[in-house]
Amino acid sequence: MTESTKYLLSEDRLPKAWYNLNADLAVPAPPPLHPGTGQPIGPDDLAPIFPMAVIAQEVTTERWVEIPEPVREVYRLWRPAPLIRARRLEKALGTPAKIYFKYEGVSPAGSHKPNTSVPQAFYNKQEGVKRIATETGAGQWGSSMAFAGSLFGLEVEVFMVKVSYDQKPYRRALMETYGAKCIASPSNLTHAGRAILEKDPNSNGSLGIAISEAVEVAASRDDTKYALGSVLNHVCLHQTIIGEEAMMQMEMADAQPDIVIACTGGGSNFAGLAFPYIRENLKGAKTRVIGVEPASCPTLTKGLYAYDFGDTGKLTPLVKMHTLGATFMPPGSHAGGLRYHGMAPMVSHVKELGLMEARAYHQTECFAAAVQFARAEGIVPAPESSHAVKGAIDEALRCKVEGKAETILFNLSGHGHFDMQAYTDFFAGKLKDNTYQQADLDAALAELPKVG
User: What φ, ψ does residue 391 adopt, rounded to 5°?
Assistant: First the structure.
């Protein structure tokens, strides 16, 4: 009998609750502040853009939040997602390490994002909302929200970062297939977009700008709410289904990870896999937890931990996070989902508490790792996910040098089937390691709001 490669949970073992790490931290995360008063915001401040059920989850102190049965019913289309032992990659690397990955590319949209788009659509539908305005970087979130909107009868309008809008036409086509409207950001449809275009008519856009446009649209219409694909507490909460499943599957494999790795852009897929393991570390476990980000947008490794706006137009509440400054414009890259100036407040807080490590890689070395992974395991990683692949390979090679048979678990947060132009550019030698300009970073950080 051959050794198992896939570890599959039956649908009746689908988790019934999401996990809230904030309930177990000795020091709670700092609260969001009203930009006008500097005081902690209340539910009424968020009501114009979020449904009340989502607001309640944003501020909850409960350890477990029940997953509504209609949401679990949709989850069953692809969940529980598989855990896979990367045996062929281990052999190719010649490492004694054991490498496992949680594969989120099996979702209808091809990434982890439906884990939160589905409950957000459900809660909005419950509240009588008709339309959703949102943003997307590389398109994973936009297509996921479009998918969820189609299930619950919601109109979805997506502001897609212009550089990705141009690079990834098939992501746009997927959103439109699900019934959403996709708009290049910055656009002329909003005050925020027009202000950016006046300064730079050729702006590549950024997640911060796209967020401003979507929030502006949501705040201006009574029938419309905003949906966010990463960063905020309720999004990190919804993603913990990844880690909860992974724990059961690692038990099936009779293994426990020594190292847990995920890429970090806004922080949600990292939180999804890592937060349940951080919970166990708080009880005495010794799992290393590593977040991997792009060197061109190094929020965790180079950003300041400070209160800042979540968007470039400065329409959102102030949240305390690792930030490069709300006006910082990262250079263009194919990992568009990681081009965000800030990091999830909860992930930032975890970093400040010393409960995780962070490292940054350039995109060419990540694509090289992705190709090596694809040629061994058959799955083409999304550009964002390639950062986690690179981190896992580096740890496996360290184990080879040190002669240690450690167990590595990483989150393969999505496939790259809509990102093949990036691979074409890589093979043609056109992919460059764009670096941010220190002067631009300094200028953006100089504009951080004065709090306290």
Answer: -60, -40
Beta bridge partners of 357: 290
| Distance (Å, whole) CA 415 – CA 426 | 17
pLDDT at 99 (0 to 100) = 98
Amino acid code (one letter) for 290: I
Handedness of CA 208, 210, 213, 215 (dihedral sign): negative
| Residue 120 to residue 128: CA distance in whole angstroms | 13
Q: Any idea which residue has 């689908």 for tokens?
A: 14
Other CB atoms within a 10 A radius of the CB of residue 67 amount to 19
Asked whether the beta carbons of 365 and 393 are under 8 A apart, the reply is no
Question: Where do the H-state alpha helices sit in 341-410?
Answer: 345-352, 363-377, 385-402
Return the SS3 of 220.
coil
Q: What pLDDT is recorded for position 8?
A: 97
Return the bridge partners of 321, or none: 306
Contact assessment for residue 336 and residue 368, using Cβ atoms and an 8 Å cutoff: no
- Of 97, 6, 141, 136, give the one whose Cα is nearest residue 414: 141
Provide the greatest CA pair distance for the chain: 66
Domains parsed from the chain with CATH numbers: 48-67+113-230 (3.40.50.1100), 76-110+234-435 (3.40.50.1100)
Given a contact cutoff of 8 angstroms between Cβ atoms, the answer to whether 279 and 23 are in contact is: no
Q: What pLDDT digit, counting tens, does each position of 389-429 carry?
A: 999 999 999 999 999 999 999 999 999 999 898 999 999 99
Residue scoring higher pLDDT (303 or 451)? 303
pTM above 0.90, yes or no: yes
CA distance 199 to 330: 16
- Exposed, middle or buried: residue 58 (CB in 10 Å: 0-12, 13-18, 19+)? middle
Q: Residue 133, by phi and psi: left (phi above 0), alpha (psi -120 to 50) or beta?
A: beta
